[in-house]
## 1
Amino acid sequence: MGWVLSMAVVEGLSAEQIAGRLEAELGEETIGDNSGKEAAARLGPAAVGIHGDGRAVILHEPWDDAPVLEDARLLARLSRGTRVVLFQLSERVNCGFFQVGCWVDGARAWQITHCREEPETQEYQILGVPPGIFADKAAPYRAQQAQADAAGELTCYLGAAVVDLFVSLTGIHYDRPGWWWDLRYRVLRPVDRASG
């Protein structure tokens, strides 16, 4: 049992500009608790809203066959001339999948993934050069994890450093009650390119 949140924080682009870069158009507006699979089904493949500080936040359907926020070609286009911070969280009992990454000016700058259930991400899989603050964020969780492992506990602490890094970079606390409930999202629909 658990839940999934997959999102991107885009600096300096409007919802309309994002739709254009993703070759989409803005559909109907939605509001409410946009977390979890049921809400993602209501939103469609992806939706864009504007955070209180003016930054755009994209939520997407992580169960989709080709999630928008995992398409390198689209992320390159979306991040051209700006910065996009990606976040994916799939929490389950005792562990989960945690990922934060950054695309800048059309290229992936770095990505950090943690999932205890996969050998290559058991501690942290780091691609590129992450911000220096990550080492400071991860140190106390690594110590806590070492103690838990020594005691034979099944609890996983390492994912919290990934979440903390996302919060530090964006100022968005994914678990603060109601932070996304008050956002109005516009559904992103693929542009209808009727052949003619």
Note: Confidence is low (pLDDT under 50) at residues 32-42.
## 2
Amino acid sequence: MELTLHQKIESAGHKVYGSVNRMWPEKLPILEKDEAERAYKRLIAKFGKKKVWSEYSNKWITEKKSVMRRRKRGTKTWKTRVRKCWLSLNGDTNSLSKGWRRLVHDVSHYVYYFRFPNNSQDHNIAQAKIEQEMAQFVIDSGWLDGKLKSKPKPKPTKDEKQTSKTKNLIKLIRSWERKETTAKTYIRKYRLKLKRLRPTMRLEDLII
């Protein structure tokens, strides 16, 4: 029975997904948060681009996808959003649901939605090819060998710890001295206002 065009396209997509699954090593390394963040940013920078027509400039321009960020609670600091399922700090590092394979799969979808915003079908040959290119890029770049890992920081010596604590204490003292100066200025200012308002009143006699 001859396959329909849709079935042929779907079959081609499955073949690409199979190729992606086979290209990964049998045993993948643990993926830590710092690596995941760097990998996500670099994959978006590498693949998250498309040519769009600008009516304003009257020419084709390159549009770039931005990374997803979230605000750290209680601060004004924005941090790159790293999904927990991208990490594989324990268990099966070769699972489809976490680690390197999950990161590449998810980011390939982000790029696909960016390139083809009007296409409702997300698992197709176009998305599969993006994932294939990303997986190959990760492998060829040596990221699985730990190239994106943070370099271990040497432990500070006793003198370095004391120096750091000393600097911090000096910083705190200066900060509170500035606050004390400001407080004295306002106290003097408000005393003068009170004296003009009630010349005979003593602050010690005031009941609040």
Note: The longest strand covers residues 49-54.
## 3
Amino acid sequence: MKKIIFGLSLFVAASSFAQDKYSPAIKQGTKLNFSAVVNGQTFPCVFSLDSLTATYVKVGWSVDGFGSGGWVMKSKSIESGNRGFWGQPNPGTVEDLADDQVAIIFSKAQWDMLQKDKKINFDQQTYTVKTPTDQQQLKISGKTVDAYYLESSNGSTHIWILNNAATPLLLKIEGNTLGADLTVNSVE
């Protein structure tokens, strides 16, 4: 009987610990407020999920003083894209991304690889899931986010991905050699 009570106590403790992580609701219309760092300068930017279906995703973007626009991912990039779009955005345009490119949302193939192998291939690098230190825990409004923390094979680039099969969002990238470092600040 003591073993059963002990087992139930452990289960309740583990369940309450797992529930302490914040998992923002992501759906069409969600706005993600980020800080971007480019060439040592930090500025705010907003990404919005303007359209979100299994075969078509439109991510809107806006940067005060620069402009706004969007990126479109179609079936192929949603299914198997493995390269980020890191080019300078073009204000006033909605750009179709190449079949192997994604923006803010990781592809289904990447998500499946993350689940199966605890790693992803992204931008011609391999990133492996690591246990984050307390300083590496991603927080939004003081709440620890339910996210995967990954490091590149040389340890110089770090990525945080929302633990959400339907919308595995890029929440943070640090040490990005191809473009801006990004950090999510809030989700609306």
Note: The first helix runs from residue 2 to 19.
